[in-house]
Design the sequence.
């Protein structure tokens, strides 16, 4: 019953497009590989892993072969070694990964994309996607994000600059994502993206910010920095409770669900003793059952 309600809620919260067919022409340059897939929370065996991949793992990912969907509502047909047709029928925007790069497909899209490999080695690939058609930025936005690193440096908690200064780290981490959101509004390249995509990217930043707070709080706990961990933990709970989550984002990526999983695992461990006894389990159930955000609660 809860699953049924969840999908009804997701439907009602999303912008209505009506189911339409989108056709994406894919042309390969300097490449013979094409991998097209959706990524959802429950079909990603490594969704819990964070941090950089080792060279061997990265090499495996880059050489794991071709995945072409074949369902009636989501399929890729090969025309020849350099040309493919992606067809998707959807009612709401979805993110699909073309050779591991995200593209944002709105119902009814008619777009031609060119996927080009600039450099490829055993454990490195430099590639790019260019597009023609309406909202071309919806297909190129992944490469626009490089503008963020040129405007602001991502704060590293391990540097001496933040030794015994967790509060400063929190402010700089928050500032990093604020700058990123401002770039979405001011960088002319993002003007070629649809408004819905820009709003999603901002929500994605909010989810990533929360995920990082969970990660760094745990890191400080492991290092024995209890005051710093408490500061991040208190900030995390405040921000999490103020964040507005959209059920329709489950069609775009799985960061939001991953945040939910990590956050409530943290709550179960820190406040309810890992649910080791029945009393704690019942208290945790009550906490979830009374959570103010109905989407999360259900």
Sequence:
């Amino acid at each position: 019953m809860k699953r049924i309600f969840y999908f009804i809620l997701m439907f009602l919260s999303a912008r209505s497009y009506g189911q339409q067919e989108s056709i994406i022409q894919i042309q390969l340059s300097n490449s013979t590989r094409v991998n097209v897939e959706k990524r959802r929370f429950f079909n990603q065996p490594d969704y819990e892993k964070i941090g950089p991949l080792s060279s061997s793992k990265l090499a495996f990912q880059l050489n794991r072969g071709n995945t072409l969907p074949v369902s009636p509502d989501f399929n890729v047909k090969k025309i020849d070694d350099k040309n493919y047709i992606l067809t998707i029928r959807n009612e709401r925007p979805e993110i699909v990964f073309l050779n591991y790069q995200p593209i944002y497909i709105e119902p009814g899209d008619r777009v031609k994309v060119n996927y080009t490999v600039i450099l490829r080695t055993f454990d490195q690939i430099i590639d790019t996607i260019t597009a023609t058609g309406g909202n071309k930025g919806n297909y190129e936005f992944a490469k626009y994000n490089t503008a963020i690193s040129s405007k602001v440096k991502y704060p590293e908690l391990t540097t001496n600059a933040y030794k015994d200064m967790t509060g400063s780290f929190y402010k700089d981490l928050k500032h990093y994502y604020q700058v990123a959101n401002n770039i979405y509004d001011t960088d002319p390249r993002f003007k070629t993206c649809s408004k819905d995509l820009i709003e999603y990217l901002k929500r994605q930043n909010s989810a990533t910010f929360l995920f990082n707070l969970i990660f760094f709080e745990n890191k400080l706990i492991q290092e024995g920095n209890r005051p710093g961990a408490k500061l991040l933990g208190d900030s995390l709970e405040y921000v999490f409770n103020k964040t507005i989550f959209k059920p329709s984002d489950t069609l775009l990526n799985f960061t939001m669900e991953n945040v939910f999983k990590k956050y409530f695992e943290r709550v179960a461990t820190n406040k309810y003793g890992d649910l080791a006894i029945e009393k704690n389990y019942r208290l945790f159930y009550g906490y979830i059952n009374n959570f103010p955000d109905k989407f999360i609660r259900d």
